[in-house]
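= Protein in question =
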Amino acid sequence: MDMSIKLIELAKLIDGTLIGPGDVTINRLMDLESAVEGDITFLTQDDPARLAATRASAVIVPENVTGAGRPVIQTPDPNLTAALIHQQLLKRPFKVAGINAGAHIGRDCRLAAEISISPLVVIGDRVHIGRRAVIHPGVVIGDEVRIGDDVVLHANVNIGPGCLLGDRVIIHAGSVIGADGFGYATAADGRHVKRPQVGIVQIDDEVEIGANACLDRATFGRTWIKRGTKIDNLVQIAHNVVIGEDSLIVSQAGVAGSSSLGRGVILGGQVGVSGHVKLGNRVMVGAKSGIHNDITDNEVVSGYPAISHRLWLRVCAILPRLPELVREVRALKRLQANKK
């Protein structure tokens, strides 16, 4: 259930400029089309027709937009402001459910008093779990795992032995953290000999990982996801990968072993990064691209193999004309040959 809050309090929360009465009660944040009385919505650019059509009680708008009689909160970034207000409206005090009788807790564990552990959870030996953690049904946590405060592990998440999770980490259903990395040595007769994977996965504060993602443990040392990074569903992160702060990894992307991504990197959907590659800070990679070489800071690349995004757009524009261009080249060659 959503909470209620006065519009003026929301404006103060995000340091926005309120135009109109501040005593309007807001219950929910909704999109422009679905919003009704009691809701607040948001508009990312000046669009008088959509603003006039919404039934919301108030609207978050860019700084140059007025409400034409409707209460508005002006802000430099309505999209960000909407996210902050939405979080505030959905905020609830933590409810301590304790440890369900249907959970298994190993030996010598240190579990905070403020905790919620659901049925069918299995926790290994010498595990530490911080305050206000929520562990949903079917989660398996290996021996000697360390989990920080305000962590949420959704159903059927698996955390391998020795892994480290910081504060405010969210991992969605079915993800596996700390499975063995894909490492083998090939013998002369073609047999593949498994290389033991004895490292860990370290996930820093405020990382969120989507459903059915796989983050492999390191061969030695750690696979490291740094603070604030967000990883989408169905992503594969191989052994010893390092992903810098505040990066975004979109669904079905894969990063091969020992590659390093800088701060603020964005990988589009289905991007493949080969092993032992280094991407600099704030690199952006378009969907379905293949990365085989190092990329320096601030570059934007696309394609397979990846090249400058601007050049890739030109290549894409030419591709449909290739059959016609080939015919023209052949005709020119025949004409030249006839002249000889």
